[in-house]
Every structure is written in structure tokens, then in C-alpha cells.
Design a protein that fits this description.
Elements (H helix, E strand, L loop, with lengths): L5 E6 L6 E6 L7 E3 L1 H5 L7 H22 L7 E13 L2 E14 L5 H14 L1 H5 L3 E8 L1
Parallel strand pairs: 5-6
Antiparallel strand pairs: 1-2, 2-3, 4-5
Helix pairs in contact: 2-3
């Protein structure tokens, strides 16, 4: 079993409080986040952005693996995950993630690529853990 961790520190109230987020590797180290970075567009990070980056990277690796099972190797896979946060049931919920994928895969037919992309969307570990509608536009080019 592989275990990884991230951590967060928070002080203050919801709107005036400040937080910092870090990752085990130190790639993120005490990066600021707060109400203003999450809801008001201020500089810093937020949970949805971090989830989007995690989902995009997880999906891209899964797609690479699935293509490899057909002896296909991507020159590049570019994935953008757009995470939707909405008011729901008296609070907020992540209701959807949309994956925009562009890939260059020598020797792959569009049909084979679409099938591999759909399999990756359904089976990457982050897709499996999310309770959200996950949609995708995948382009082979």
C-alpha cells in the first residue's frame, strides 16, 4: 500500500482567516490559501485547484498506461481538469469535473484513443474517489 500526505494549517474565521497548505515532497510548502483565494480570485491556491491538478495528472498517467497496453506511446498528453464548486443542500459541494484532453499518440486511431481515454476517465484512482459528474472532451491531434 502506498500512502502520501498533504497538510494544511488554518487560523481565524472563515472570511478573515488564513491558511497554508504543504505536500509531503515539499513541492508545495506553506502556500497561502483562504476565503479570498477560493472565492474572490486573490493570489494563492485553493482546494479545487489542487484537486484539478491532481485529477489531471492521475488521468494522464492512467491514459499513458492504457495506451501502453496496446503498445502505443504518447508523444504528449495534456489534460486540464475544471472542477465545479456549487452551493448545494445548504453548503458547498464539488459537483463536477470536466477533463479537456489533447494528445499526440503515433499509430493510434481516433477510435482506439477515445476508448483508452474513456477507460482512463472511469478508472484513474482520483476519478474513482470523486462523488461528482466527470465529463470529458478528448482530442487526438
Amino acid at each position: 500500500m502506498i500512502k502520501k500526505h498533504g497538510s494544511a494549517k488554518w487560523s481565524g474565521g472563515l472570511k478573515d482567516g488564513k491558511g497554508h497548505v504543504s505536500t509531503e515532497t515539499g513541492v508545495l510548502s506553506d502556500q497561502p490559501y483562504g476565503f479570498n483565494t477560493r472565492f474572490e480570485g486573490e493570489k494563492g491556491t485553493n482546494p479545487e485547484e489542487l484537486l484539478g491538478a491532481a485529477h489531471a495528472s492521475c488521468f494522464s498517467m492512467a491514459l499513458s498506461m492504457i495506451l501502453g497496453q496496446s503498445d502505443l506511446v504518447a508523444d504528449k498528453i495534456e489534460t486540464r481538469a475544471t472542477v465545479s464548486l456549487e452551493e448545494k443542500d445548504g453548503g458547498f459541494a464539488i459537483t463536477a469535473v470536466h477533463l479537456d484532453v489533447t494528445a499526440s499518440v503515433p499509430g493510434a486511431s481516433d477510435e482506439d484513443f477515445q476508448k483508452a481515454a474513456e477507460t482512463a476517465k472511469e478508472n484513474c484512482p482520483l476519478s474513482k474517489v470523486l462523488n461528482a459528474d466527470i465529463t470529458m472532451d478528448a482530442k487526438l491531434g
